[in-house]
Write a structure and sequence with these properties.
130 residues
Length: 130
């Protein structure tokens, strides 16, 4: 019995194309200040998380796939104490998106937000732009 390769090839191509497809309701929007205008969004897709940035004209850049960072990878391995604070970390291009633990503290005080964008500083969850 022969296994049909064409349907399998089509399935693989379809799944590869869905890797950055946004799941409905999965987008989280972030600002660099509480209750500010969002400037980037993180979405969960069929294959991975992705990030898009709001351009000056009000349109979103195409989503870019985010790759998970392990605790043995920079910057988690090179910044003392950072790995212990991080729940999850992702890299996209030159950016690193960190989700901090709920009990994360800096210099003995709770951090102002559970989200951090390197470079950029703390990121605050906000509502999407209409």
């Amino acid at each position: 019995m022969k296994f049909p390769l064409l349907p399998l090839a089509l399935l693989v191509l379809t799944l590869a194309g869905c890797q950055s497809m946004e799941m409905p309701g999965s987008a989280r929007y972030f600002s660099n200040q509480p209750d500010g205008q969002p400037f980037f969004k993180v979405t969960s897709g069929m294959g991975s998380m992705s990030m898009a940035v709001l351009e000056p004209g009000g349109t979103w850049t195409p989503p870019r796939a985010m790759k998970a960072i392990g605790t043995n990878d920079p910057p988690l391995s090179t910044v003392p104490g950072l790995a212990a604070m991080v729940q999850s970390a992702y890299r996209v291009d030159d950016y690193v998106f960190l989700e901090l633990r709920a009990d994360a503290q800096a210099q003995g005080k709770p951090v102002p937000s559970r989200y951090f964008l390197l470079p950029g500083g703390f990121a605050y969850p906000v509502q999407p732009v209409p």
